[in-house]
C-alpha cells in the first residue's frame, strides 16, 4: 500500500504533463489560427485546395516541435542533476519550468511569446521524462517492475485523452478557448512541483549519494519488510561502483555498456518512427484533411486517445506474464497491417480535391484506432520501460538522458517535417512509417533479449547470455570495470 502511494504522485504528474504536451490540438481552432497563423487559416477556409497540403506551414510546425527541441537539450542537463541531487530534484525543476511555460502560453500576444512558452514546457518535458521512468524502475519490486513502469505510459495516454477532451470543449469558446486550453498547464505545473517535494527519494539514489542508512530504511518501507538484505547488498555494490565512475557519459561507451547504449538509441528512435506522434499531434488536422468537420475531427482524435489509454491497460496486465518481446513483435505486425490498409484506402479513394465518403472515413478511423491499440500495448510503454531498466546504476541517469534526448530529437524531426511529408508523400506517408515498423520488428526479434523477471541490478548477466551481445561485450567483467574506472 505504501508503495502505491509513493508511485501515485509521479504518475499523476506525468498524466498532467501529457495534458500539456498534447494541447497542440489548438492548431485546429479557428481563433488560434487567425491570430497566429493567418496563412494557414486562409488555406483552411478555401473551397478548393490540395487536401494533403492545406496545413503545410513551417511556423505552425515550429509551434509544435519547439517543445521537443527544448526537451532534448534539457534532458541532457537533467542527467547530472538527477544523479547528483536525486530524482526528486529533476521532477521539481520540471514542474517549475511548466509553470513559466503555461503562463507565457496563456498570455501570448505574438508568435515569439507563444513559442517561448512551448520551449519552457519542453524544458519541463526533458526533466520529467528523464526522472520519472527512473524513479518508477528503482521503486518497483522486480516481479512488478514491468507493470508498474507501464503506469508511466498509462498516465501518458490518459493525459493525451484528457487533452483531446479539453480541446473538444474549449474550441466551442470563441474567441479565447485556446487560451484556456493552453493556460490549464498552470494546474499540472503546480501539482508536479508539490508532488516532487513530497516524494521520498529512491533507495538507489540515496545510497549512490552516500545516505546508506536512509536508503535501507526507505527500501524496507516500500517493500513492507525488514528482510531486504539481498536487494540492499545489490544496490550497495552497484552504488559503490557507480561512485567510482566520475564521467558516466564517457563510461557508457565502454564495451560492457554497448548493448544498453544501442537500445537507448534505437528503442526511442523506433518508437517515434512508428508514426504514432504524427497521428496524435495532428489528429485533428489529419481528420480535417480527410474531410471531417471541425467537431468531428476533434471527436475522432479524442477517440484515438481513449483507445491508447485502454490499450495500455492490456500491456500492464500482460507484460510481466508474456514478456517484452512478445508484445513488441505482435504490436509491430498489427501496426504494419494498419498502416498499409490506410495507405491503400487513401490512395484509391482520396483525391486532391475530394472528400472520403462517410463509410470510408469511418473505416479509416477504425483502422487508425487499431494501429493506436497495437502501439499502446507494445512500443508505447515498452519504448520507455526497456531503456529505464537495462542500465547499471553507474550509467543509469546518463542512459536515461540519452533515451529521452533521442526520443525528443526524432519527435522534433517528425513534428517539424510531418506536414511537409504529408504534402509531398500524400498517402505514401503511411507506407513510409510501415517500412520503419518492419525494420524495428526484425530488430527486436534478432537483438533484444527478454528482460522479464530479471532483477534490475543483474541485467548485465542477461546480455552476457545473448547469442549476439556476448560476442560484443568483454570476456572479463573485472577487466572492463577497471577500464571504466580509469575513465
TrEMBL record:
PROSITE patterns: MFS, SUGAR_TRANSPORT_1, SUGAR_TRANSPORT_2. Residues 6-452 form the Major facilitator superfamily (MFS) profile domain. Residues 1-15 form the signal peptide. It is found in: Membrane. CDD domains: MFS_STP (cd17361). Keywords: Membrane, Signal, Sugar transport, Symport, Transmembrane, Transmembrane helix, Transport. It is a multi-pass membrane protein. One of its GO terms (cellular component) is membrane. It holds the Pfam family Sugar_tr. GO terms for molecular function: monosaccharide transmembrane transporter activity; symporter activity. It comes from the Eukaryota. The chain crosses the membrane at residues 59-77, 89-109, 115-136, 148-166, 178-199, 261-285, 297-319, 326-348, 360-380, 401-421, 427-448. Belongs to the major facilitator superfamily. Sugar transporter (TC 2.A.1.1) family. PANTHER family: SOLUTE CARRIER FAMILY 2, FACILITATED GLUCOSE TRANSPORTER, SUGAR TRANSPORT PROTEIN 7. This is Sugar transport protein 7 isoform X1. The lineage of its organism: Eukaryota, Viridiplantae, Streptophyta, Embryophyta, Tracheophyta.
Amino acid at each position: 500500500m505504501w508503495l502505491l502511494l509513493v508511485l501515485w504522485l509521479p504518475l499523476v504528474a506525468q498524466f498532467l504533463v501529457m495534458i500539456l504536451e498534447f494541447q497542440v490540438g489548438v492548431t485546429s481552432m479557428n481563433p488560434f489560427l487567425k491570430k497566429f497563423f493567418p496563412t494557414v487559416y486562409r488555406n483552411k477556409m478555401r473551397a478548393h485546395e490540395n487536401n494533403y497540403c492545406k496545413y503545410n506551414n513551417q511556423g505552425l510546425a515550429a509551434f509544435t516541435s519547439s517543445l521537443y527541441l527544448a526537451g532534448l537539450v534539457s534532458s541532457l542537463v537533467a542527467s547530472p542533476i538527477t544523479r547528483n541531487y536525486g530524482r526528486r530534484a529533476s521532477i521539481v525543476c520540471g514542474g517549475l519550468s511548466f509553470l513559466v511555460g503555461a503562463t507565457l502560453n496563456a498570455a501570448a500576444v505574438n508568435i515569439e511569446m507563444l513559442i517561448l512558452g512551448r520551449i519552457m514546457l519542453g524544458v519541463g518535458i526533458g526533466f520529467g521524462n528523464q526522472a520519472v521512468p527512473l524513479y518508477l524502475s528503482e521503486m518497483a519490486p522486480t516481479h512488478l517492475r514491468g507493470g508498474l513502469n507501464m503506469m508511466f505510459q498509462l498516465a501518458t495516454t490518459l493525459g493525451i485523452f484528457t487533452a483531446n477532451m479539453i480541446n473538444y470543449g474549449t474550441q466551442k469558446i470563441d474567441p479565447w478557448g485556446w487560451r484556456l486550453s493552453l493556460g490549464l498547464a498552470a494546474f499540472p505545473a503546480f501539482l508536479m512541483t508539490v508532488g516532487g517535494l513530497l516524494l521520498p527519494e529512491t533507495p538507489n539514489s540515496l545510497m549512490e549519494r552516500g545516505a546508506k542508512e536512509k536508503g535501507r530504511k526507505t527500501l524496507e518501507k516500500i517493500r513492507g519488510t525488514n528482510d531486504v538484505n539481498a536487494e540492499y547488498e545489490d544496490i550497495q555494490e552497484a552504488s559503490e561502483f557507480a561512485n567510482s565512475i566520475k564521467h558516466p557519459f564517457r563510461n557508457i561507451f565502454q564495451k560492457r555498456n554497448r548493448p544498453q547504449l544501442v537500445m537507448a538509441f534505437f528503442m526511442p528512435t523506433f518508437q517515434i518512427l512508428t508514426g504514432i506522434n504524427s497521428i496524435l499531434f495532428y489528429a485533428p488536422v489529419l481528420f480535417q484533411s480527410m474531410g471531417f468537420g471541425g467537431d468531428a475531427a476533434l471527436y475522432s482524435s479524442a477517440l484515438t486517445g481513449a483507445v491508447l489509454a485502454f490499450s495500455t491497460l492490456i500491456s500492464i496486465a500482460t507484460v510481466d506474464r508474456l514478456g517484452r518481446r512478445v508484445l513488441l513483435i505482435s504490436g509491430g505486425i498489427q501496426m504494419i497491417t494498419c498502416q498499409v490498409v490506410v495507405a491503400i484506402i487513401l490512395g484509391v479513394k482520396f483525391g486532391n480535391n475530394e472528400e472520403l465518403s462517410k463509410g470510408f472515413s469511418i473505416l479509416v478511423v477504425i483502422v487508425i484506432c487499431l494501429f493506436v491499440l497495437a502501439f499502446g500495448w507494445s512500443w508505447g510503454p515498452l519504448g520507455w520501460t526497456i531503456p529505464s531498466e537495462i542500465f547499471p546504476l553507474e550509467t543509469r541517469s546518463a542512459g536515461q538522458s540519452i533515451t529521452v534526448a533521442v526520443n525528443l530529437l526524432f519527435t522534433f524531426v517528425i513534428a517539424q517535417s510531418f506536414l511537409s511529408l504529408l504534402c509531398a508523400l500524400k498517402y505514401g506517408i503511411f507506407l513510409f512509417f510501415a517500412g520503419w515498423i518492419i525494420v524495428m520488428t526484425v530488430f527486436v526479434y534478432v537483438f533484444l533479449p527478454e528482460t522479464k523477471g530479471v532483477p534490475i541490478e543483474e541485467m548485465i548477466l542477461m546480455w552476457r547470455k545473448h547469442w549476439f551481445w556476448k560476442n560484443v561485450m568483454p570476456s572479463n567483467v573485472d577487466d572492463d570495470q577497471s577500464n571504466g574506472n580509469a575513465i
